């Protein structure tokens, strides 16, 4: 019974947050929709932020964990395989992310469009920082393997990587059907792949 009540609060909270955003959502409205008191909500969630996080945090963390594992597995490859498999690894990772986002669409809609401002920015910044570090690690590996790689400014890498991940979440911001999103992401990948090869001189 308690778990049913908790799930009912989550469902009503999701609807309220999707409709009004984090700032505009009201625990009183959520309580009324769920048929409980506001005090009952506090029995499950200490505040509005905790309720929101319960709807978002697990799918968001799963995506981040997978992203980190992809980077770590790629970094463990020998240099020749990194050079040969970089494009495919990136493609497979993006494809997994898109599938994951659409499996948990409401959670990512909340994160991208309805969260308290800093939450989404902080989430994207984590991904940007990881990808930026991985990019320079890849450059170092290529240099040690005897490949000539052009010098690239760290701020430029940061800007480009930020554009990539901001672009990824545009599929949610614009409510793209999954089939269209896959086409869009493929185009984004082609653009960035060609650009990176050009910038790095590879």
Automatic annotation (TrEMBL):
Limits of the HTH tetR-type domain: 3-63
GO terms assigned for molecular function: DNA-binding transcription factor activity; transcription cis-regulatory region binding
Alphabetized PROSITE patterns for the sequence: HTH_TETR_1, HTH_TETR_2
Superkingdom assignment: Bacteria
GO biological process terms held by the UniProt record: negative regulation of DNA-templated transcription
Coiled coil residues, start to end: none
Alphabetic keyword roster: DNA-binding, Transcription, Transcription regulation
Annotated region of DNA binding: 26-45
Signal sequence bounds: none
Listed Pfam families: TetR_N
Name of the protein in question: TetR family transcriptional regulator
């Amino acid at each position: 019974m308690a778990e049913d009540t908790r799930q009912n609060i989550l469902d009503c909270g999701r609807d309220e947050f999707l409709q009004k955003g984090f700032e505009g959502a009201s625990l009183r409205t959520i309580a009324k929709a769920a048929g409980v008191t506001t005090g009952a909500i506090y029995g499950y969630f200490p505040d509005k932020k905790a309720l929101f996080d319960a709807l978002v945090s697990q799918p968001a963390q799963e995506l981040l964990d997978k992203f980190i594992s992809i980077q770590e597995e790629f970094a463990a490859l020998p240099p020749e395989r990194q050079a040969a498999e970089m494009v495919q690894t990136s493609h497979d990772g993006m494809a997994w992310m898109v599938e994951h986002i659409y499996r948990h669409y409401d959670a990512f809609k909340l994160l991208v469009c309805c969260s308290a401002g800093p939450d989404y920015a902080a989430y994207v910044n984590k991904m940007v920082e990881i990808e930026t570090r991985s990019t320079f690690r890849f450059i170092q590996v290529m240099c040690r393997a005897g490949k000539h790689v052009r010098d690239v400014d760290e701020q430029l890498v940061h800007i480009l990587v930020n554009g990539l991940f901001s672009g990824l979440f545009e599929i949610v911001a614009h409510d793209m059907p999954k089939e269209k999103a896959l086409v869009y992401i493929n185009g984004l990948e082609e653009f960035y792949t060609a650009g990176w090869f050009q910038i790095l001189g590879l």
